[in-house]
Specification:
Length: 130
C-alpha cells in the first residue's frame, strides 16, 4: 500500500502571513519618524507636556516580535491564528505600557517590555485543552 499525502491548505496562507509580518516590520523601521509622531500625539492626550524623550519604545519591541512571528508562522503554519492573537495582545500591552511610561517613568517601559515578551511567548506556545 502506498500512503497518499495531501499538502496542507494553510501553508500558502501562512506564507502570505509571514511575508506580511516581515513587511510590517520593515514598514515600522522605515516609518520610524511618523510612528514616533503618532506615539507622541497619543501620549500628549494623557499629558500635554510630554516630549519625545519620555516616550516608550513599542516600535523597537514590535519589530523583533513581528520577525519572530513570521518565522513561527512560516515554520509551523497550524499556529498562525495563535501567533497573530498573541502578537495583537502584545501590541496592545506595549502601547498601554508606553502610555504608562509617560505617567510613571522609564521603569514602566522596562516592565512593559518584559510583560509583553512573556505574554507573547505564553500565548504562542501554550497548548489548547481538548
Amino acid at each position: 500500500m502506498t500512503a497518499v499525502t495531501t499538502p496542507h491548505r494553510r501553508a500558502p496562507a501562512a506564507r502570505a502571513v509571514a511575508v506580511l509580518l516581515v513587511a510590517a516590520a520593515a514598514g515600522l523601521v522605515l516609518a520610524h519618524r511618523p510612528y514616533q509622531g503618532v506615539e507622541l500625539a497619543v501620549a500628549r492626550l494623557a499629558s500635554p507636556s510630554v516630549h519625545i524623550g519620555q516616550l516608550g519604545s513599542s516600535a523597537q519591541m514590535l519589530v523583533p516580535l513581528l520577525l519572530l512571528s513570521s518565522v513561527l508562522v512560516a515554520l509551523i503554519p497550524r499556529i498562525t491564528g495563535k501567533t497573530l492573537v498573541a502578537l495583537g495582545c502584545t501590541t496592545v500591552t506595549l502601547v498601554a505600557f508606553d502610555q504608562l511610561t509617560v505617567l510613571l517613568g522609564p521603569s514602566a517601559d522596562v516592565g512593559g517590555g518584559v510583560a509583553a515578551v512573556v505574554l507573547f511567548c505564553w500565548l504562542t506556545v501554550r497548548r489548547e485543552r481538548p
